[in-house]
Design a protein that fits this description.
Blueprint: H1 7-17, H2 30-48, H3 54-65, H4 74-86, H5 90-109, H6 119-132, H7 136-145, H8 151-164, H9 168-183, H10 188-204, H11 211-224, H12 230-249, H13 253-268, H14 278-292, H15 296-311, H16 319-332, H17 336-343, H18 349-365, H19 369-377, H20 383-396, H21 400-409, H22 416-425, H23 429-438, H24 453-462, H25 466-475, H26 479-496, H27 502-516
């Protein structure tokens, strides 16, 4: 079994494995509250001391079996099962794994999570976590047992871990397998949507060298699918534009232009669908992409067509949004004055403010943040929203100090915790802690920022600053987050040297277990 443990990613698996039950406002029966945390701690006991983990694993199993809500039982049960496997009780572990998948499948069919992540998807997310921590056998076993639309996406994310481990051939094998799994779906729409999801996952995980395999299969499906209705054409066009967008992002402008030139006549010829404004949306999107590949004059002409098409539509709840999409297209093409004029004619505030938000972000991306802030200040209702987007833009581009400067200077509400978390995840725990301390506490909940503490402890531990990490954990008032923080610190000791740090890791896991068992 591949059980190489990485320092940073092992901490992520600790936090993600129990994140579903550790959000603010979590309240269930005592057993339900304790089980996910104790299951994670038991797994870490097995990782650090495989011969001495049985007692805690049995305790975790008892709590998990006693959970009243089956919707959330599968993930901790799987964690306990893999703990038994680590501890040398493979037969028992495999039996529990089978039960975990049975529970997850039944609860997914019952739609127990409603709009949230389904139990089966939750297990697949854990597969990704296992791969990131180096537990490849655990990860692949989950994808082989699962039969969910999300399985191929999880496989792509697992492939990323192989790529990071300098195993590109193995990564490609898993991606090819993911595409094969997706193609087995007999439903055309679901199959193609999954293939598109694979393409987006490849892009977002930095595996664009494999992107053409997925996009080719989507385009082949589009070419062979008969367009019997306008809705079919619109759907084909939408997915083609999604592919051109991926090509543009990856610097493949000639290929993107060729696809745009191919699909534009289909958009122009599109007849009315059940969504009258759909043609306007598609024209606007095509214009934005032409602008992105440097064909501003073509974009300008298409936007003029989109605007006249919108003006010819009958009044409907979607009309103002259609004009907003055209205006955003003007923004992306650098026609800011035209965009402003059109925005000022939009009657609904939400749609109008979408345009001004796009203008503000255009300024930011062009390096004129002062102009963006000035625009945000002029919009009383959208001010904080736009300023928040500006801050998050800088966070996404790892310009943390610039994000903090704007957040504090403009008194942007609700965004400082995000800045603090970004610092922590970037390996800057001291800055993260300073930012968190600058946030005004809620009078009725002095521990409302405790959800950040596991990330802070994790960041300190990653830097080898274990004393500071422990100080953060011990100062955490919320028992769920305190348990998480302590477990993350122990996991980092294990990742650095499982044998040499066995005693220290076990000591901290003992503390984490005591805290977890006191959760009510």
């Amino acid at each position: 079994m591949a059980l190489g443990i990485r320092r940073g990613t092992l901490l992520a698996i600790v936090m993600l494995a129990i994140s579903g039950s550790s959000k603010p406002g979590f309240s269930q029966e005592k057993t339900d509250a304790q089980a996910p945390f104790v299951a994670e701690i038991a797994f870490q006991y097995a990782a650090v001391n495989r011969s001495g983990a049985a007692k805690v694993l049995d305790q975790a199993l008892s709590l998990t079996e006693g959970m009243q809500n089956d919707c959330y039982k599968a993930a901790p049960l799987m964690r306990v099962a893999n703990g038994y496997i680590l501890a040398g009780q493979s037969e028992k572990g495999q039996q529990l794994l089978t039960r975990a998948f049975q529970i997850a499948h039944a609860q997914t069919i019952a739609n127990c999570a409603l709009s949230a992540t389904s139990p089966e998807e939750s297990l697949l997310n854990r597969a990704v976590d296992y791969a990131e921590a180096g537990y490849y056998d655990f990860a692949l076993q989950i994808t082989q047992r699962g039969d969910n639309w999300f399985t191929p996406i999880a496989m792509v994310r697992i492939a990323k871990s192989y790529k990071d481990d300098q195993k590109p051939d193995r990564a490609k094998q898993i991606i090819d397998k993911a595409l094969t799994v997706a193609q087995r779906n007999p439903d055309l729409r679901s199959r193609r949507q999954t293939l598109m999801a694979i393409a987006f996952a490849l892009q977002s995980t930095g595996q664009s060298e494999f992107l053409s395999s997925a996009t080719k299969q989507v385009l082949d499906s589009i070419r062979t699918n008969p367009k019997t209705q306008s809705e079919d054409t619109a759907w084909n066009v939408t997915q083609t534009l999604q592919i051109t967008d991926l090509l543009i992002v990856n610097g493949q402008k000639p290929q993107a232009i060729a696809l745009l030139n191919q699909v534009l006549p289909e958009i122009r010829a599109l007849r009315s669908t059940q969504f009258p404004a759909e043609k306007v949306y598609l024209l606007s999107q095509a214009a934005i992409q032409y602008a992105a590949v440097g064909q501003a004059s073509q974009a300008k002409a298409i936007l003029a067509t989109a605007q006249s098409t919108a003006q010819a539509l009958k009044p409907s709840p979607f009309l103002n949004n259609a004009f907003a999409q055209v205006a955003i297209g003007y923004v992306k093409n650098g026609q800011l004055q035209t965009a402003r004029e059109l925005a000022n004619r939009i009657k609904t505030r939400v749609d109008r403010e979408q345009v001004f938000q796009a203008i503000a972000m255009h300024y930011v991306e062009s390096g004129d943040v002062d102009q963006a802030v000035k625009l945000a200040r002029s919009l009383s209702t959208a001010k904080n929203l736009i300023l928040t987007e500006i801050v998050r833009y800088y966070l996404a581009n790892k310009q943390y100090d610039q994000a903090l400067k704007i957040a504090q200077r403009e008194d942007v509400q609700g965004v400082l915790p995000d800045v603090a978390l970004a610092y922590a995840e970037a390996g800057k725990p001291e800055q993260a802690l300073r930012v968190a301390k600058s946030v005004k506490p809620l009078s009725n909940n002095p521990a409302y920022l405790d959800w950040l503490m596991p990330a802070f402890a994790r960041s300190f531990a990653q830097q080898g600053q274990f004393e500071q990490a422990l100080q953060v954990a011990q100062a955490t008032q919320n028992k769920q987050y305190k348990s998480q923080a302590l477990t993350a610190i122990a996991a980092q000791y294990i990742a650095k040297d499982r044998v040499a740090n066995r005693s220290k890791a076990t000591e901290i896991l003992d503390q984490a277990l005591k805290v977890a068992l006191s959760i009510k």
